[in-house]
Amino acid sequence: MNDDDSEASEREGRARLRELTQDHSDLDVAVQAMANQTVPDMMAISRLKRKKLLLKDEIERLKDQLTPDIIA
Q1: 8 to 12, 14, 20, 50, 59: CA distances (angstroms)
Q2: Backbone dihedral region of 40: left (phi > 0), alpha (psi from -120 to 50 degrees) or beta?
């Protein structure tokens, strides 16, 4: 893989990371809004929290891929 390919791949990865981070933040807002309802739908809140956890895992995996390995 040449430098142009790796730079493009890194840009795509960083763009995806921003997208996932925004989605995670949006889910925070949605969970909070649902929790503040008079009668919160606990099943829906639970599903959203599960999605948040899955997104967080994907965010961490992507961060690991974008961070270069440093051999000490």
Answers
A1: 6, 10, 18, 31, 19
A2: beta
Task: Label residue 69 exposed, middle or buried (CB < 10 Å: 0-12, 13-18, 19+).
Answer: exposed
- 13 contacts 65 by C-beta, under 8 angstroms: yes
Among candidate residues 63, 61, 62, 29, the one with its CA nearest the CA of residue 48: 29
Q: 23-55: per-residue pLDDT in tens?
A: 999 999 999 999 999 999 999 999 999 999 999
CA distance 55 to 51: 6
pTM for this model (two decimals): 0.82
